[in-house]
Specification:
alpha+beta; 4 strands; 3 helices
Length: 96
């Protein structure tokens, strides 16, 4: 299993639009081959801070996610909403 944790900071005026766009991306991402989890989280004390927790069966499945139409649409839609560059860190799962 391969996981990626994406840290995202959004401009305050775009929080609602970011949530809408990311919810659409989530709905399609969870249907992808090899997708095990796709969590969309918002910081309760800083509503402009988000995390995407993505888990795929293989590295190939994770790479394929970034070639999908829904991911590309999400990326181009939310890019202007970002307060700073998003940071995606890949992790190797030890447990479970």
């Amino acid at each position: 299993m391969v996981t990626t944790i994406v840290h995202i900071k959004v401009k305050q005026e775009f929080v609602k639009q970011f949530i809408e766009a990311t919810t659409k991306n989530h709905a399609n991402s969870v249907k992808e081959k090899g997708n095990m989890r796709f969590d969309f989280l918002q910081n309760p004390t800083d509503p402009t801070a988000f995390i995407l927790y993505e888990a795929y069966e293989t590295e190939e499945d994770a790479k394929t996610h970034k070639t999908t139409t829904h991911y590309e649409k999400w990326r181009t839609t939310v890019e202007p909403f970002m307060a700073s560059r998003r940071i995606g860190l890949t992790y190797k799962v030890i447990k479970p």
